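Help!! Second protein's tokens look totally different from the first
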Amino acid sequence: MTPAATPAYRRLSVEERRSQLLAAALGLFAHRAPEDVSLDDVAEAAGVSRPLVYRYFPGGKQQLYEAALRSAAEELQLCFDEPREGPPLPRLSRALDRYLSFVDEHDTGFSALLQGGSVVETSRTTAIVDGVRRAAAEHIYRHLGVAEPGPRLRMSVRTWITAVEAASLIWLDEGKQPPMTELRDWLVEQFVAILTVTAARDPQTAAVVGELAADGGN
């Protein structure tokens, strides 16, 4: 009988190995606060040695955390990268579905990320998080068909993004209740409500609300 062939070992490329380590780190940060994750934990999760983790992240845990945070930020930004086809509000609903699914999957890490207070929090990590907010706002302006939003519209959109973050944290704290779809619909309704209040004081926002109404509000 011919013995079963042993699978050939394939050495990972630098980029593949780095991606493997980041995936392992993100998995840990998703369920533990950053200060509760060690390089040994990451090495064990990735099935590699601690010196190998240091080889790819010579800055240690801080560098690894920032790289993992940047990777998560890129994923969050993509949540709002919805094709500009069809009415704006259904697009926003689909974007929120992806955003809330990310929150659900990375619950503890998401809380640590937004609430701050971590021993590994720096001005760089704060800038990464703020970059997600700004990118989300830019996507929303494009979905609304506004090339140059004025101060009142910008304030309204950024206030809503802050409300989404706060609602997400409260949702996690409340045992993920109400159901995700109900939370999504409520957040879309809040978006329309904020714009409607602003529209009474700002012609640009009033035009946006008029366009949403012309689309049937859906």
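Here's the second one for comparison:
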Amino acid sequence: MTQYFAHANGVSAMIVPNVADGVHLITHANVNCYMVEDDHGVTLVDAGLPSMWPMLTQLLAERNRRPQDVKALVLTHGHFDHVGFALRARKQWGIPVLVHAEDARLAAHPYRYKPQRNRFLYPFTHPKSLPALSRMAAAGALTVKGVSDTRPLGTGVADALTGRPDVVHTPGHTDGHCILHLPDRGVLLTGDALVTLDPYTGKAGPQIVASAATKDTEQALASLEAIAATGATTLLPGHGEPWKEGAEAAVREAWRIGAH
């Protein structure tokens, strides 16, 4: 597995082709987004941070792909660190941006959300989060523009997307959060329904995101059942390293850690 290293705004970044079967990872400042590829084209999953745009164009070039090959950009949810370059992709490449109807307003206004606990005070009680949050800010986390011209993401759109993913609604982190399951590849893109690094605590391992960035942690924990039910072998989260020990093991660990 070849890894390409880059630097953007002084923060190290990495491109990992084939982090899973036909799925390529872009990671920068502890934020992940993905490119799903097959013979018919490319689907992007999440738009990370604005500074990840050059990394996306580099990855497309490395895969001998053109912007015209990109069929859609799917947002697992509408938070700022997943909307990053969405507006640019929509305007510059003319690709559709898909998000669950319950997160359409959030995608248009990605900072306007009320988590369960105050996200500005939380880092002071969890100082290990400060390096991760500082890296995100340096990578453009405070300058994201929302995207209002979106299409609804639901189970009926799978046939039009690369890899024909099963779209599963997993509310809790946000009202419209969704995960994407590629059953023929044993891969699950979990967004922030389950992460392996929580930027708001600095803790690693499978878990839900802290209450400082989650609307309803009880609902987020309940949505983990949908992740376990996929039986996926490889989980690709919105933050942290890929998890390759199976969905059920990841969910058991997330339940053990619980809400925080």
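Reply: Different proteins will give different token patterns, so don't panic. The chain has a mean pLDDT of 90.
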